């Protein structure tokens, strides 16, 4: 039944993809759906882009296994949208560019910046994407009882996502995200209503049941994170990283105006907030109704908590209702992964084609047809690379890849975006130092952190640390060190390189006028300049 | 909504509305951002350093930690609403700035 429902969802989304393909005639259509998506549609699509499998499956599992600490992720991921709303959404849309690199070059007037910004975009998207692809692989493999192993499931997801993006471009990707967001909200609301019904419509009763089963400690903080600095570092990466995530940024270019960009963030915040509040109900209910042992038997990281909860709520294992609930929620999770991966793929291939191919290799001289063709080729290439890296990483714990993507985005993209928008003296040297310094600091800290280094007992075969040696850097998330480092590198680069660039202040004035007023943006994305 | 197009390369038009827009918007962004960051980071800081407080039951079995976390969501929605209202002023000033 799971596969039947998943097949129906895939069939519907493929239908939309082919419908969209007939409306994709230019590179702008491909990248940003011609800037024609409405604010509510875009808001739902942002929510669809954001509520990834890590949120739906991951957080439910984290709360089910660790109680309150798991819910901290929900709060951080939601609050992150205030950073996006207040600081980046409207100015970015006002500047009318396709990519982060476009914006930086427009302000800093130095083509070298384009390459570094594009590399940063591709690095962040890749880490995020590998995690999603590997997650999809283990989900399918678990549900098929091992009949379809990750080695088959990962290419399957990869090929579907290539079809969505190559054939349908941003328009199809947006609609896949909208459908997925609606399905996910529907599933979550139905489950929450059923949970409340079971517990006398009282969150207090639900927590009471959790306490009875696990002890009072479970209702408070500290089950998972013993070191307070770990919590703060994670919070920093989540709250500051979102505003630098390429697949979130690219969504502001799909709407006609800055007002629409703002409205779409507000739409997204309503949906995402409601969803994350409900994770508190789902996670705690999974703990009580399914039980920690059953959840960890299905998947040690807790990823099966939400599907198993649906099974329990709809009548339990073996009943028709229970099997339907399991199948439906799994199919929704599958759609979730497809939609998120498609969004990431388009962000990465847009950056490659628009910034590296057109901007650097062809020095801005490519025709629309050439650009469009390369965009499709780049999508296939990005997809194939994601499949190969996904296959290589399939036995690794993938949670750190997502946190790493957030940390890199917060350490390299965010300082550069903020300084570009608000610091008059900021220059190209500062941007390059900020991007490179932020990424390298982040990667270096991760390489010596407990994500990579650690001593596993000899009998352990899955989820082993890559390097069997004690961790040098103690935190799982490097944000608390790497984010200030990214800012420091950007400042240092600017001060050291200041005398070399003339006219940066005038460029700032121009950029600021446009960012604040939207002058020069005329409905669609402005021509490349 | 269509915004009037400027000739590319023309110098930015400086008028009183634009000066007000930049000043007000910058002030608003800084105040709101600092406020929400301080309010948000109280949560992980308290969760890290004051576990007994977070585990204190406020009503029924609902702990202070959950109440605080749910209030963070309310804060997010309220601040977004404030921004939307305030943004109408910015839109008006932006339109004036381009005259």
Oligomer: heterodimer
By DSSP, the count of extended strands of chain A is 0
Order of helices and strands of chain B: HHEEH
Termini gap of chain B: 16 Å
- Structural class of chain B, please? mainly alpha
Q: Which runs of chain B of at least 5 residues are low in confidence (pLDDT < 50)? A: 1-10
Rg over alpha carbons of chain B: 21 Å
| Major pleated sheet of chain A | none
Q: Order of strands across the biggest sheet of chain B?
A: 1-2
Show the largest interface. Answer: A-B, 65 and 57 residues
The proportion of residues forming helix of chain A, as a percent range, comes to: over 70%
Rg of chain A is 23 Å
**Secondary-structure element order of chain A, as H and E?**
HHHHHHHHHHHHHHHHHHHH
Mean pLDDT score of chain A: 85
Overall 3D geometry of chain A? globular
Keywords (chain B): Membrane, Transmembrane, Transmembrane helix
Protein name (chain B): DUF485 domain-containing protein
Transmembrane segments (chain B): 28-49, 64-85
Organism (chain B): Deinococcus aetherius
Structural commentary:
Chain B: Keywords: Membrane, Transmembrane, Transmembrane helix. Chain B: It comes from Deinococcus aetherius. Chain B: Pfam families: DUF485. With 529 residues, chain A is mainly alpha-helical. Chain A is built from 20 helices and no strands. Chain A is globular, with a radius of gyration of 23 Å. Chain B has helices at residues 16-49, 51-55, 64-97, and strands at 57-59, 62-63. In chain B, 74% of the residues lie in helices and 5% in strands. Chain B contains three helices and two strands. With 99 residues, chain B is mainly alpha-helical. Chain B is elongated, with a radius of gyration of 21 Å. In chain B, β1 (57-59) and β2 (62-63) form a beta hairpin. A two-stranded antiparallel ribbon of chain B has the order 1-2. The two termini of chain B are 16 Å apart. At the A-B interface, α5, α9, α10, α12 and α20 of A face α1, α2, β2 and α3 of B.
């Amino acid at each position: 039944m799971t596969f039947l429902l998943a097949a129906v969802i895939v069939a519907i989304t493929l239908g939309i993809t082919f419908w969209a393909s007939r409306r994709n005639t230019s590179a702008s259509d491909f990248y940003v759906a011609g800037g024609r998506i409405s604010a509510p549609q875009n808001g739902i699509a942002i929510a669809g882009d954001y509520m990834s499998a890590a949120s739906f499956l991951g957080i439910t599992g984290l709360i089910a296994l660790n109680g309150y600490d798991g819910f901290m992720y929900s709060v951080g991921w939601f609050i992150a949208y205030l950073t996006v709303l207040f600081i980046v959404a409207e100015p970015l849309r006002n500047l009318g560019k396709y990519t982060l690199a476009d914006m930086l070059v427009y302000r800093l007037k130095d083509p070298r910046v384009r390459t570094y910004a594009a590399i940063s975009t591709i690095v962040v998207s890749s880490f995020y994407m590998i995690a999603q692809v590997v997650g999809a692989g283990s989900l399918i493999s678990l549900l098929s009882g091992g009949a379809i192993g990750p080695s088959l499931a990962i290419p399957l997801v990869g090929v579907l996502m290539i079809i969505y993006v190559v054939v349908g471009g941003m328009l199809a990707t947006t609609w896949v995200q909208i459908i997925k967001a609606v399905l996910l909200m529907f599933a979550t609301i139905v489950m929450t209503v059923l949970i409340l019904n079971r517990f006398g419509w009282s969150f207090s009763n639900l927590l009471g049941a959790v306490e009875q089963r696990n002890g009072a400690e479970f209702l408070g903080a500290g089950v998972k994170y013993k070191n307070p600095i770990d919590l703060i570092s994670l919070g920093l990466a989540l709250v500051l990283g979102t505003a630098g995530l390429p697949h979130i940024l690219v969504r502001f270019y799909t709407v006609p105006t800055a007002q629409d960009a703002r409205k779409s963030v507000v739409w997204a915040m309503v949906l995402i907030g409601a969803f994350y509040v409900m994770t508190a109900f789902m996670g705690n209910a999974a703990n009580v109704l399914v039980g920690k042992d059953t959840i960890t038997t299905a998947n040690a990281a807790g990823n099966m908590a939400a599907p198993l909860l649906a099974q329990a709520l709809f009548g339990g294992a073996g009943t028709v209702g229970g099997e339907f609930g399991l199948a439906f929620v799994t199919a929704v999770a599958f759609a979730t992964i497809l939609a998120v991966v498609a969004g990431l793929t388009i962000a990465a291939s847009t950056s490659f084609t628009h910034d590296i191919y057109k901007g650097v290799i062809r020095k801005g001289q490519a025709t629309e047809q050439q650009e469009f063709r390369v965009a499709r080729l780049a999508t296939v290439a990005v997809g194939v690379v994601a499949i190969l890296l996904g296959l290589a990483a399939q036995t690794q714990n993938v949670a750190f890849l997502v946190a790493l993507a957030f940390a890199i985005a917060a350490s390299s993209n965010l300082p550069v975006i903020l300084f570009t928008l608000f610091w008059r003296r900021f220059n190209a040297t500062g941007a390059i130092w900020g991007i490179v310094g932020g990424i390298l600091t982040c990667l270096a800290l991760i390489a010596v952190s407990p994500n990579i280094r650690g001593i596993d007992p000899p009998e352990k075969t899955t989820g082993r640390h890559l390097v069997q040696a004690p961790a040098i850097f103690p935190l799982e998330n490097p944000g608390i060190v790497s984010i200030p480092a990214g800012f420091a590198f950007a400042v240092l680069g600017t001060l050291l390189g200041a005398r070399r660039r003339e006219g940066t202040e005038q460029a700032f004035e121009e950029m600021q006028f446009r960012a604040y007023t939207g002058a020069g943006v005329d409905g669609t994305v402005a021509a490349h300049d | 909504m269509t915004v009037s197009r400027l000739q590319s390369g023309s110098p930015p038009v400086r008028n009183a509305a634009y000066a007000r827009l930049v000043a007000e918007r910058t002030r608003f962004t800084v105040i709101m951002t600092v406020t929400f960051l301080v309010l948000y980071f109280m949560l992980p800081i308290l969760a890290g350093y004051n576990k007994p407080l977070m585990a204190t039951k406020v009503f029924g079995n609902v702990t202070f930690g959950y109440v605080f976390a749910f209030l963070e969501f309310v804060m997010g929605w309220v601040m977004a609403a404030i921004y939307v209202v305030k943004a109408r002023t910015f839109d008006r000033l932006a339109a004036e700035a381009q005259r």
